[in-house]
Write a structure and sequence with these properties.
- This protein is α/β, with parallel strands linked by helices and 728 residues long.
- It is built from 28 helices and 21 strands.
- Strands 11-12-10-13-14-9-15 form a seven-stranded parallel β-sheet, with helices on both faces. Strands 16-21-20-17-19-18 form a six-stranded parallel β-sheet, sandwiched between helices.
- The longest helix is centred in the middle third of the chain and has 32 residues.
- The radius of gyration is 30 Å and the shape is globular.
- The two termini are 19 Å apart.
- Bound molecules: adenosine-5'-diphosphate and magnesium ion (MG).
- The site of adenosine-5'-diphosphate has 18 residues, from helix 14.
Length: 728
């Protein structure tokens, strides 16, 4: 798949089955390792010098109730023989000076006396095994162990590998482990891995290593796995971190340069066209920010190189109008524009909004006079004939505005003259998919990416480093207030009924209401209210007589579309939905949202959900129903959401709690992610440095002749392509 240039990277890409055999390689999938490179980047979890001990209380707290494989370094406080032969057992009391843990050994008496002998060689050792619970007391049954003595490490026969391994370093690295892979098997596998890369050339040329101040890759691998000092370990880790940051930054720096070598058809704004007529019929005035951003975009569109711009803006800041204006600019200039949404519901919603905003301008084909342009929707679940008809209008150029989902990215669509691609809510797409759009020969379309998720600069550099950035920070004037209240259903059960009564009052005033719950139905084994049950209960009781509908991901696409359309048209009063309405749904008449089991949603998710109300002139009420008790972290997150509507503040708080992959929108499994060690929030400095170095690399070596850099970039692009192939 990838045409490797240097042997190090080719070697690191080797499948683990070739290095360790199929069975062990399969076990390593549990540690998210597929290749030799993954294996060598598996860092020890704890690095302990001969005098350290593991914090036993913390170890137990982390694994409470579970059946986890743990490894610890501890003192042996006491060794006791219990029971009568032949059912004797050896109880070993381990301590870190404060807490304690019992290790138990069963076996023939000859074995027991052998273990006793080994244990008596020192008062400290490394023990690794399954942490089980016996009468609510934690216990290690039959751990493997080595004792640390002045002469080195001694262990039972099965543990000699562990001893051999730890004796080469003055530190003991305890690796993450699984039931099939105890820590010393991981260590042994890593030794095999280290042997395979020994002597291979470094992918980074010396000048880059100097500029970055990092050690060689060889030293780095040995430094993290067999350190003789903490410093050596730190330097090794620094190099591995730098490589991850640099690979991503170099890929993006070359993409940025690559864009400048490609041409796009310039789409110059015309004086009297669709755009002018669209503006004239807009029911509101554009904010000054919207005007500024639109100007930036039209300047980009008028150039002969493809626009690559990110439009970042708070929920409700009015990105769609800006995007639509760009699309109409392109249509005026004779091209076609595509708007892609992450979900079908959102695509349909966009089609609805766009058609409404454009009015009779959206009927070019029907009028036949060429006055407007056709707006077509293309989604995966359409019937073959509907798709065929849409494709025909796309191919003929009759449709100027095309709205769809991912399906649009799949092959087989012919455009008449594609001028602009707008990608809404990019973070939902998986990061790298825009590459596919830019992969065509000849003139490329302009690209505008939109996201409502406020992201810190270091994240932006990593995820969107190949894009220019515009921001909308204001919420259009006249937007109503939204009051958010946390409702403690445990302490005030009566309030739940009040919430439903309040929803009924909103409906009586002609407003609409969203009710959100975490689950679809009972079938999924999770906890929290289900949309289906909640809807049934409400329509039988508190909301009887109200026009109520259900929306969730398992409904047929046509039903989802119809429900959204009816909610949009005001024919449904209350929509009981899962979090699928989180992005983009726009019904200005909706004034209330009740979120059941709110603690089951993330902070940013709640903020996005709440963004669905208060979009028109009507003040909004958002109720967060929760059973999370006051003072708990879950409850505090909800209080934070209630306290502010500042998306940036909430995102910053939220990011700290979420997994990196979620932040970056990387592939779900995270397996293909090129980021194994790098934490985008923690390592902003490294990312900054990597970006500077990457820019210098592109300046010095625009043709990417350096084989190592070429390999690192190829690796990133291959992962991006694989992600894309998965998602289409
Ligand atoms: P988002 O940035 O979340 O995608 P939208 O583009 O959906 O926001 O806009 C939210 C709502 O605000 C829509 O109903 C839209 O028509 C309206 N809107 C957009 N711009 C303005 C404006 N300048 N003045 C008043 N309302 C606006
Ligand atoms: Mg939007």
């Amino acid at each position: 798949m990838v045409d490797w240039k240097t042997t190090t990277y080719a070697e690191l890409a080797t499948g683990l089955d070739k290095v360790l055999g199929a069975a062990t390689a399969k076990a390593f999938r549990g540690l998210n390792c597929d290749t030799l490179g993954d294996l060598l980047r598996l860092l020890p979890r704890h690095l302990m010098s001969g005098t350290d001990v593991t914090d036993i209380a913390a170890l137990i707290a982390q694994n409470r109730g579970g059946e986890e494989y743990v490894a610890l370094m501890a003192r042996v406080a006491r060794v006791e023989l219990k029971g009568q032969a032949p059912k004797q057992r050896l109880e070993v009391r381990l301590t870190d000076g404060r807490g304690w843990l019992t290790a138990t050994f069963f076996g023939r008496s000859s074995l027991i006396s052998y273990w006793q002998r080994v244990l008596s060689q020192s008062d400290r050792g490394v023990f690794a095994g399954k942490l089980g619970w016996f009468n609510d007391t934690p216990q290690l049954a039959h751990p493997a162990f080595v004792m640390v003595t002045d002469e080195g490490f001694v262990g039972s026969a099965q543990n000699t590998k562990m001893a051999a391994r730890v004796s080469r370093s003055s530190f003991i690295g305890l690796y993450p482990q699984t039931s099939k892979l105890p820590t010393w098997t991981v260590a042994e596998s890593i030794d095999l891995g280290l042997a395979r890369v020994d002597g291979l050339p470094d992918p980074l040329p010396p000048w880059i290593r100097d500029a970055a101040g990092v050690c060689s890759l060889q030293d780095a691998f040995h430094g993290v796995h067999e350190p003789t000092s903490q410093d050596q370990y730190d330097q090794g880790k620094q190099r591995l971190l730098f490589d991850e940051a640099f690979a991503a930054q170099a890929a993006m720096a070359y993409r940025r340069m690559d864009v400048t070598t490609h041409t796009a058809v310039p789409r110059v704004t015309t004086e009297a066209g669709l755009l002018a007529r669209f503006d004239a019929r807009l029911p509101f005035q554009l904010t000054s920010e919207q005007v500024d951003v639109s100007d930036q975009i039209s300047a980009d569109l008028a150039r002969t190189r493809p626009m690559q711009r990110l439009l970042q803006g708070e929920v409700g800041s009015g990105k769609t109008v800006v995007a639509l204006r760009a699309m109409l600019t392109v249509v005026d200039a004779g091209g076609q524009a595509v708007l892609m949404a992450p979900t079908e519901v959102l695509a349909q919603q966009h089609a609805f909004t766009v058609t409404r905003l454009m009015g009779d301008l959206a009927q070019g084909g029907l009028l036949g006079g060429g006055d407007g342009t056709d707006v077509v929707l293309l989604t995966g679940s359409q019937t073959a004939s509907a798709k065929g008809e849409a494709m025909e209008r796309i191919a003929s150029g009759q449709a100027g505005v095309i709205i769809g989902t991912h399906a649009l990215l799949s092959t087989g669509i012919r455009f008449h003259d594609l001028g602009l691609v707008v990608i809404d809510e990019q973070h939902r797409f998986g990061v790298e998919q825009r590459t596919a759009l830019t992969d065509q020969a000849g003139a490329r379309p302009h690209v505008l990416v939109m996201t409502a998720t406020p992201i810190p600069r270091s994240v932006a550099m990593t995820v969107f480093g190949d894009l220019d950035v515009s921001s909308l920070t204001q919420i259009p004037a006249g937007r109503a207030e939204v009051t958010t209240t946390v409702v403690d259903v445990g302490a005030r059960p009566g309030w739940v009924d009040r919430a439903w009564a309040r929803a009924g009052e909103e409906v009586a005033k002609g407003r609409q209401v969203y009710i959100v719950a975490p689950r679809i139905d009972q079938g999924d084994g999770k906890e929290g209210a289900c949309v289906v049950d909640l809807a049934a209960t409400l329509s039988r009781g508190p909301l009887a007589g109200v026009r109520l509908a259900v929306l969730h991901g398992r409904l047929p696409a046509s039903e989802k579309a119809e429900t959204m359309a009816r909610f949009g048209a005001g024919q449904i009063d209350v929509l009981v939905a899962t979090s699928m309405i989180e992005v983009g749904v726009d019904q200005p008449n909706a004034s209330m949202m009740v979120i059941s089991d709110a603690e089951r949603f993330g902070v940013s998710q709640l903020h996005q959900l709440r963004g669905r109300i208060g979009r028109g002139a009507h003040p909004g009420v958002c109720l967060l129903l929760t059973s999370a008790v006051e003072g708990t972290p879950a409850r505090e997150r909800l209080e934070m959401v209630a306290a502010t509507r500042d998306g940036f503040a909430l995102a910053a708080a939220d990011l700290a709690q979420r997994r990196e992959g979620d932040v970056l929108g990387m592939s779900q499994s995270g397996r293909r992610s090129s980021l194994r060690l790098l934490r985008v929030l923690d390592h902003a400095d490294i990312i900054d440095l990597a970006r500077q170095v990457a820019e210098e690399v592109v300046r010095r070596d625009p043709a990417m002749t350096d084989p190592g850099v070429a390999d690192m970039v190829a690796d990133i692009e291959a992962r991006a392509q694989a992600d894309l192939d998965d998602s289409v």
